[in-house]
Amino acid sequence: MPLKAYDLTGRTAFVTGAASGIGRATAVLLAEAGATVHCADQDAPDLHGTAARIEAAGGTAHPHVLDVTDEARVERTVAGAATTTGRLDVLAAIAGIMHSSPVLETREEDLDRVLGVNFKGVLYACRAAARVMIAGGRGGSIVTMASGAVDTGGPGLLCYGVSKAAVVQLTKTLATEVGPYGIRVNAVAPGWIRTPMTARHDAADRARTEDLIVRRAPLGRVGAPEDVAHAVLHLASDAAAFTTGQILRPNGGVAMPW
């Protein structure tokens, strides 16, 4: 049965950024595929909302209020999560923030804050998960969240774009190092997705941006969190058993890098 490759029954997943947007959609979808899902985020109310949604649908979820920039706490939380089922099979490192400013006006503290969450937070989660997976001896799948910003420049996106480019390099490097242990590492680089992060724009600006994207995109629409969640599920599952060090781009065709 072809769909069996996407069945995560009996497996354990850890998802950062699970309180909203792509992180929430991913946590919900991995649970629907059968995984026990550990949901992590700083936003406690919405985090517990994600866990409640999973439980209400018959899945199993464990919420963890977590600041991904706290390396020691990330290490403890990921290791502790694995003890609940005796394994860790999937990490989806999705937590991220946005900052916009022209290059000439970007402050050091802005760059440090974005790198702290978008790059270091991903690095800490990846290292913690890889250590658990190596010790478990079952292999596993690590999925990081990059962005379409790695394929093209954009005004005001220095901090965000640099942090996501760093995630891409981390993904490729880690893939070469943990491949011998049967651990796959891939990234998802979405295009414009309707999430709380993109809602930072005022309504008129958001409408103009989305209109431009719709006109440029071969598929003629912007993305939804579920579009990205399905990409994560694919990379997390046995359907992608021969895929590592790759960047999957659910972007409606806006960017087509060679």
Automatic annotation (TrEMBL):
SUPFAM superfamilies: NAD(P)-binding Rossmann-fold domains. GO terms for molecular function: oxidoreductase activity. Gene3D superfamilies: NAD(P)-binding Rossmann-like Domain. Keywords: Oxidoreductase. Transmembrane segments: none annotated. PANTHER family: DEHYDROGENASES, SHORT CHAIN, OXIDOREDUCTASE UCPA. Belongs to the short-chain dehydrogenases/reductases (SDR) family. This is 3-oxoacyl-[acyl-carrier-protein] reductase FabG. It comes from Streptomyces longispororuber. The gene is fabG.
